[in-house]
Specification:
Layout (H helix, E strand, L loop, with lengths): L2 E10 L18 H38 L5 E3 L1 H13 L3 H10 L9 H15 L7 E10 L7 H11 L1 E5 L5 H15 L17 E10 L12 E6 L5 E18 L4 E7 L4 E8 L4 H7 L2 H10 L1 E10 L1 E8 L1 H6 L13 H4 L4 E14 L22 E3 L4 E7 L4 E8 L6
Parallel strand pairs: 1-5, 1-12, 3-4, 10-13
Antiparallel strand pairs: 2-15, 3-5, 6-7, 7-8, 7-10, 8-9, 9-14, 11-12, 14-15
Helix pairs in contact: 1-4, 2-3, 2-4
Keywords: Glycoprotein, Protease inhibitor, Serine protease inhibitor, Signal
Protein name: Serpin domain-containing protein
Pfam families: Serpin
Length: 418
Amino acid sequence: MKTTFYLCLLLVGLHAAAHDQLPPNHDGHDPNESKHRAHHAGEVMTCLKLVPNNADFAFQFFKELRLETPDKNIFFSPVSISTAFAMLAFGARSATQTQILEGLAFNLTDMHEKEIHEGFHHLIHMLSHPESEVQLDMGNVIFLTEKLKPLKKFSDDAKALYQMDTFTADFNNPAEAEKQINDYIERKTHEKITSLVKDIDPQTVMLLASFIFFKGKWEKPFTSELTEEREFFVDEKTTVKVPMMHQTDIFDFYFDEKVPCTVVRLHYNGSATVFLVLPEKGKMKHLEQALVKETVREWSENLFQRRISLYFPKFSISGSYEIKNTLNKMGIIDVFTDRADLSGITGAPELKVSKVVHKAVLDVDERGTEAAAATAAEIMTISLPPTIEFNHPFLMLIFDRATNSTLFIGKIVNPTEH
């Protein structure tokens, strides 16, 4: 009988939405600069190889999740889930490894396993840039029972590729193990993710957790004085009151007649951007079915700038999921059964994943860059700008533009439900 372990995925949300800024141009003659640029270009190219596959996984996972939780808020981080399972695949062997990588939407004929792990390594490195105006922290951690020793090669390589930390935990004392793990995660996610794990089975021998924390400041912050309570139409029978933020400015805009839906792109200071997608009333299912990478690419290519009177709700939501069944439907099966082969982790085959927990938190408010002592006069046309009000269910897609990675996907059905 296989020994089981937990796999926990944590993601933590944000405070706004995004835009990219080009790095400053240096004119010096530092001999190391060209090497640095070449290395950076290599990282970007390796990351870009993952983009189509990661996007396919992200949107397929969303579609499976929305079938399981219809008419409910959804919020998760595809990049966190795929990173965690890519790391798990690094310690998997035979059919277990193949299922995981193919379940992550990789074609192993087109891309070698080594390329996948190198791609995730560079992705993690590029996303974790402390100098950026967007705060984005990613990490991976394994908690092991004292009797279970990972292979040195796995520990060394997983740390190098996935920035993985390893700790000992006493799973025979579940309360103590839960506190140790939850305290670690809470600290790493800036107290956003609390009580991630509970009811740990004393038979657990290993717990793997992946986390992501994101906090961005709007490039064009909303003025809190303009926020007012307005109606949000959850469905035909349910209306709730929400604090609705407001600003009139020039935004990236597109109306997709085929779906149909309105797309507004907002930016963060830094390299993150968000697509706010508002379907016509009653057309959410059409939008969900149309959500594939080609659709998002079409939106991106057809955006144009337009002055808009924008109303957008201020809200906080969280998503907490056990995603084992979701992953089963996507072809990742053996790793959860006695057929699991995770011998690359410990050298022995007696391991399987018992549970996969994923939790994400999203905060959206007016906050942006600090006010500066400056005055500007805007020249406005006589005609009033069109009003776009996100007052019924909509989607949020948050991307990192430097890597084209899908950081978060959200479906906001009721912004008052936490």
